[in-house]
Each structure stands twice: as structure tokens, then as C-alpha cells.
Amino acid sequence: MMSDSDFPIIDAHVHTYRSREIGRQAMMGTGQTDYGGTPEELLELMAHGGIQKAVMVNMTPVVEMSDAALAKLPADLSPAQRVEAEDDIRRQMIGRLQRRNDWTCQVAREHPHLIAFISLDPSMSEEELVAEIDLRREQGARGIKLHPANQRFYPNDRRLWPVYDRAQALGLPIIFHSGAFALRPQATDHAHPRHFPEVLSAFPGLTAIMAHLAWGDFAACADLASAYPNVFFDCCGVINGTAKQSALSDDEAAAALQQVGTERVMFGSDYPWFDPVLDAGRIQRLPLTDAEKRAVLHDNAVRLLAL
Known about the structure:
The protein is α/β, with parallel strands linked by helices. The protein is 47% helix and 12% strand. The protein has 13 helices and eight strands. An eight-stranded parallel beta sheet has the order 1-2-3-4-5-6-7-8. Strand 5 (174-177), helix 8 (197-202) and strand 6 form a beta-alpha-beta unit. The radius of gyration is 19 Å and the shape is globular.
């Protein structure tokens, strides 16, 4: 089944995994589909739904993995031994992040319809952060993914200033998780919209994309869009066609996109949590003009991600 639009669709927010088992584990039972997140599965769905390109915003949960490893350390370590063990764990987790970045870039080179964004973590030194950006850009990475809620940092954390500076200089967009986080039951405000203005002001040449439309805080997104020309959004999860019962009616979803600005929002599915074909179909059914639908489903991603 091809898309009923007369233009190719771009999915600006997907996740991919080496195997179905890894993907299912990553979703922790929160997915709305039975998908496993492999590139091969995604490419089949894209061909089925008329989706020309998809942006892999893969990330590595460094903090969660580090916490699990730290919890296993013997209680009787001396202070010096503990420092050494903690540093070893940090190096191991950064190594995992780097290997996942390498894999994501490799997948994108093998499959031109898939675009690679890389993950970084604030626990990396300034030198490590800049070196990782430069290396993966050489390998074909087209942007960066940061997840303040999962990685437990605020967007205006000065440890990330070298990342923003380098991304701005290289023209690499950064996509941030924004708003609530379904995989952490405890409340977290790390990705609240109020933490973004300092970054947007300090780096006006940086293309910053707030994923999930701050999980439905459309007024805050609209305020940011009005104040900062360098901030954009994707609508994945919040406006979807996968869930059996949508939180927003079609009229409410269309109004939300128009409130923020259809020229500022990209379509994203958050595959494998959601079905990209069903989600794109939902956007196509919304009471929007053809130009507005094309902007969300295609044109904005081409412009913002230099596709």
C-alpha cells in the first residue's frame, strides 16, 4: 500500500536495533506495536507506506546501564578502588555508546533511505564529545540525538556547550526528547520546555528540534516557536494513528499543529513504539490544507535536516 499523497513522506524520528529481541527489550512493554525495530523491518514498512527516508535517532541509555553496573560493585571496596571501578564503568558505557553510533552510521551507509543521528552523553569529556561528533560526521552522521529525561541532564547544562558549539559550526541539527518520558515512572522535569530558551538564545545558528511536541504542551511549544526562529518540533507519539484510542481528535490534532506552526513541525513515528504507516496516514487525514500536510510530512524535514 503506497501513500495516497503525491509526494514522498519523511519520518524524522525512528529507532533501530540490531535484533528484534533487543528492540523488544528496549521498549519494556510500552510499545503500541509488535514490531522489533530492525532496519530490515523498518525498510519493509517504509516501502509499504510510501516513506522515502527515515531518521534513526538511536541513543544509548548510559545512565541506566551505569547505575546497574555500579549496584553490582562490592560494598567493601576502598575509596581508591571505588574511584577506579567507577571510572572503568564510565569507560565501558561510553564504549557501548560509541559502538552503537558506529553501527547506526554503518546501517545508514548500507541503506541510503535511512539517516544516522548519533548519541552523546554528558559524562563524556569535552574532548571525547567533540571527537565523537567529528568522527561520526566523517562516517556519514547527519545530526545528534540527546535525551535529557533518560540521560538526566537539563538542556542548558554547560557540559553540553561544546556539543552545541560544534553542531552549530558544522550545521548539524540536534533533536532533543522534550516533555514527559514514558519509560521512567518517576516524575522528571529535565526535558521541560522551560529549560530550552537559554540554549536557543546562546546558539542562534543551531537547529534544535524538540521531539514529541513536549508531550502535548502545545502552548509552550508555540511560545518557543514565536520567540526563537531556530527551534522546531516533531509530533511523534503525541499525534499518531497507531493507538486504538487517540488522546486528540482530528480537529484537536490539526489545531495543535497550526498553533505551533505547520512550518515548524515534522512528522515522526517513534517506530517501533508506533507504526509509521498508520501514523503518516493519520496526518494525511487531518483537516489541514494540502500545503500544510506536505510541510509536516515532507518539506520541513528536507529543509531542516538538509535531505
